Every structure is written in C-alpha cells, then in structure tokens.
C-alpha cells in the first residue's frame, strides 16, 4: 500500500509538518509506503485555461513544461493521495491550489472534441489540515471544495483530519492531536483493507 502526501505548507517545521509527522510514523508502523512531495520545492504554474489538454483523451496533455506531470504520475501510482495544508484564507495554499486546478482540468476530459477518461477515477483522497479558527469555521470551505473536486474527478473522498492553532502562547502539538492523527492513518488503512476483503 502506498500513500503520496502532497505537502502544501511553506514551513518545513510548521504546524502542518508537526501534525504530519506522527501520521507518517503510524503509516510506517502499518507497513504503508509513503512519499512526501513538498509543493513549495516544485514548480507548478497555474492553469492557463488553454484547453489543449482536452484534446488528449488518455493522458494529461498539458502544454506547460514544469513539475506537474511528474507529481500527477505519483498521484496516479499510489493508493491514497493525502493533501496536507495549512488554511490561510479559508482554502489551501497557492501551490496546492495550482496543482489541484490543473489535476482536475487536465485529469478530466470533459471539454474536448471527444469525451475522454477521468484519469484519477477511483483514487482515494484524504486531507490533513491546520487552521487558526475552529475546524468547522476555518476548514469547512476547503473540505467542501475538496469533496466537489473528488466528485468531479470520480475520486473517493476519505475525510479530513483538522486541528486548530490557538496562538503562539499555546504549544500546537499535544497528546490529543498526536493520537488523533495516528487514528486517522489507521482508519484510512483499515478502510482500504476492508474493501480488499
């Protein structure tokens, strides 16, 4: 089993990285292979809206020559895509938004001369999120957007684990967050195992 984690935080030692660390440890304990791609280290330009990809029915067909195709290949080759991001303005960070825009557009051939495939059809997607408000007010728009992104791309949404940052006077990580995100890893693992039985 393989998880590809798309890390959307600009801070390698920030809250999202702190929440992700025990998730990755739990994955290793469960025997899950993980790959973490730091999107701020990659070059992924925004979608140009040129529609050239829509006339390539069985592959991406994007005209931009950057890191998008390589990242998308990793998304295709794994069992679960995990989107890890802080929420700054009620949605994911800019590199992740650029990636998701291109993945949903080039990955779904709905607008060309002939209708083609959904390249992430059946792919499982989960999210690990940090934000400054209560999750139901800080990450609700992100989660709804992700649900729609999955539905449009025929992917399976597995859920979100989100925790709030209470400010510099309160340490972000605590026992509840660590055990909760480990439980989240286990729940994803078990849901896949149940499907395989």
Automatic annotation (TrEMBL):
Domain of life: Bacteria
Pfam family, one: FMN_red
Matches recorded under InterPro entries: Flavoprotein-like_sf (IPR029039), FMN_Rdtase-like_dom (IPR005025), ISF_SsuE-like (IPR051796)
Keywords: Flavoprotein, FMN
A Gene Ontology molecular function term of the record: oxidoreductase activity
Domain spans labelled NADPH-dependent FMN reductase-like: 1-133
Family matches, as PANTHER family: NAD(P)H-DEPENDENT FMN-CONTAINING OXIDOREDUCTASE YWQN-RELATED
The protein's name in its UniProt record: Flavodoxin family protein
